Amino acid sequence: MSELRHRRGEGDENDKAETAGESDQVDVDSEEEKVLEEKYVDELAKNLPQGTDKTPEILDSALSGLSSRWRNWVIRGIFTWLMIGAFCLLIYGGPLALMITVLCVQVKCFEEIINIGYAVYRVHGLPWFRSLSWYFLLTSNYFFYGENLIDYFGVVINRTDYLHFLVTYHRFISFSLYCVGFVWFVLSLVKRYYMRQFSLFAWTHVALLIVVTQSYLIIQNIFEGLIWFIVPVSMIICNDVMAYVFGFFFGKTPLIKLSPKKTWEGFIGGGVSTVIFGLVLSYLMSQYPYLVCPIEYSESLGRMTMECEPSTLFRLHEYTPPQFLQPLMKIFGRETITMYPFMIHSLALSIFSSVIGPFGGFFASGFKRAFKIKDFGDVIPGHGGIMDRFDCQFLMATFVNVYITSFIRTATPQKLLQQVYNLKPEQQLQLFYALKESLENRNILNMVP
């Protein structure tokens, strides 16, 4: 027994020695990792393209006499108006042009985020990171855009034999594609860089969550009616522009440490401007059926249509203001206010875009500061990358989609039919007889001539 205890004691001491040796090795590895991390961040800051200070040669020579502050003001102003003009052209191009643009913006934003991670790939020689990231982007888009097609084109797709299989097993196919990428990732693991590779795996999935999921929600918002896309996007643009203008001329009080140039004056000025702008824009756009009608597939026409009888949201109503506003109404000689109900909803959207929306930009600022970079890219002179301009838009798109689902959307015969067509034939018959029996019992079917 004593010999056994002695051997056990030796074993415990050996285990402790091995554990101590492993912990020493971990400390050494962690120190090495810290050194590599610092080198990586410094190299990243030097190598990634930065667009805020990038200017076309013609503009650079024309503005050479201005101070850097006013030079940046002019450049940002020029390219802001160019982007607003491009946005108006896309609206004129219709829903398809907007959807294609959303897809292109999504890909570019994903590329800018992944390029930061790819800098790690180049430093450490990690295998397959970039290929895997783009593969996961493709599979995610296949899943999300497939869901959209099924929701809005289910009637057509189910009548096409070779597409019926893809519709029926869409989610299974999507999951299978994801599993291929998952296995690919596991097989690409390198012993020395496990932690780094798993970090980059998480990096890719966070990028997919931020970019792909939001673009999917934007597409859904467009299908609810162009007004649900144009108004929120315009509000973010207005808030961004006016916050910059108020901050440039009147800004003195810092707002948040993550973004030192942001001021309370800009934040408040941009917020008030956005609320006023949102109400005016909503009033003007609510008058046009092309902008307010949902996009649906018409079986009779055999195509997508945006023709409808505008809902009550987009019909003028008279409202009696609260008691505390009555004295103000008497000044204008009115007792009621005539407005579109959508304007009340736009007020909620404008408040969100003014108060919560900027935090999407603060989040992006914190992300860039972590890697000592100024911009995500250099596509837009004076502004940076595409992600620099759409950081707030993605957050806004999620809110709009949640708002529509919670307070606006109701079931329509068209959408219910699309779900019915996905059922098996015997289930469709069961539903038909149950509905027929219910209508007969309530004497609704007998009322039809």
UniProtKB/TrEMBL annotation:
Residues 24-33 have a biased composition (Acidic residues). Residues 9-19 have a biased composition (Basic and acidic residues). Its main location: membrane. PROSITE patterns: CDS. Pfam families: CTP_transf_1 (PF01148). It catalyses: a 1,2-diacyl-sn-glycero-3-phosphate + CTP + H(+) = a CDP-1,2-diacyl-sn-glycerol + diphosphate. The chain crosses the membrane at residues 73-92, 165-187, 199-219, 225-251, 263-284, 342-364. GO terms for molecular function: phosphatidate cytidylyltransferase activity. GO terms for biological process: CDP-diacylglycerol biosynthetic process. It comes from the Eukaryota. GO terms for cellular component: endoplasmic reticulum membrane. It is found in: Membrane. This is Phosphatidate cytidylyltransferase.
